[in-house]
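Document type: protein sequence-to-structure record

Subject area: structural biology

Format: plain text, a pair of labelled lines:
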Amino acid sequence: MGSRRRKGCSVERVALIATGSELVYGSIQDQNNAFISRSLFNTGLSVVLHSTVGDDVEELKSVFSHAAERAGIIIITGGLGPTDDDHTVEALKDIYDFDLIVDEDGRKRMEAFFRSVDREPIEGDLKMVTVPEGSLLFPNDVGLATGFLIERDGKMFIAMPGVPNEMRPMFQERVLPYLIERFALRVLPSLELKVAMKREAEVNLLVREFAVDFGKIVWGITTSPGLNSVTFVGKDGAPLDENALWAEAERVFGDALLARGSSSIEEEVVRLLRLKGRTLATAESCTGGLVAKKLTDIPGASAGFTGGIIAYGNEVKKKVLEVPGEILENHGAVSEETAAAMARGALLRLKSDYAVAITGIAGPDGGTGDKPVGTVCFGVADGDRVETFARRIMGDRERVRLISALYALDKVRHLLLK
């Protein structure tokens, strides 16, 4: 396909297809289409279709053909692996009748990998480096399957591995730069801000109120647990006053707005701990160490996170955190009084500047009339002071635990901002 996008022409339309029966069955959630859409948001390319399809060859062919009717660029993730249910190349070959070759550089990388782990390639491994003849190849720097680009009938098909940690660097470092150069794309100025622990509807109303004052901009909200990401882009290439937008967002959202560059609440907590030279300890019951995990997922967390105690049972609460037995007897394990004692215990036991504690009923059992499933109590200790609060969190066990961890982290973040 020649470059059909020139000045005065409409932007290129893009269709995204995630393949894999595990996606269709709901065993795992697709992450790739959303990531690619976000990456293309400010390039001028228009994503018009998201599709998910299983590993049946005929279904793949049907979805690929439909996508080619809707868009000029079709980006496919998944189906490049070594197993019998990886059919992306086969389905494209059935439609467009091309010859296959082995990517020799990919073969050498694969053989070198297997030597490094003292293994030999087995039947099927060569499939990961078998590609359409004449295609543009995208080497895989973190995995084995080679990505490729092939053009047929005025359409551009791009295939990448489905594993997110392989697809993302391939797309960001190889595919996206190629598309920008190929179509002479102008990456538009953009601004992303992240708002913590507010409802999407509330964020939407607040953004709508101040965005209107900035003229030709478009914006979109992406929601994840505990966080709303708002991305602004100048409409039709209009300039974007990033500093003025940020200042207005600070005025509207206050401390709910994460610092520029922070991608999560836990990342912001780690940043603030390091900036202020402070340390944090955790004491967790119903979350089972999730707060500690989120903190230690962030590189450099050791500078501010001293450690955590999982006090799931009452005996651990009493013996390790020194929660008085009378508090447990009089108020129960799930109470603000117990959360306060847990936070004090963690502060003393782990010798930190701050400590946060969580105790609750994640469900599905264990609730009572006074304390239904989803009741969670928090304590945050800062020297001699302890602040407590409680929340009722709706959802299944996994969601109760996740939102509890985010509430705890966000409370620490607010404390560090003072």
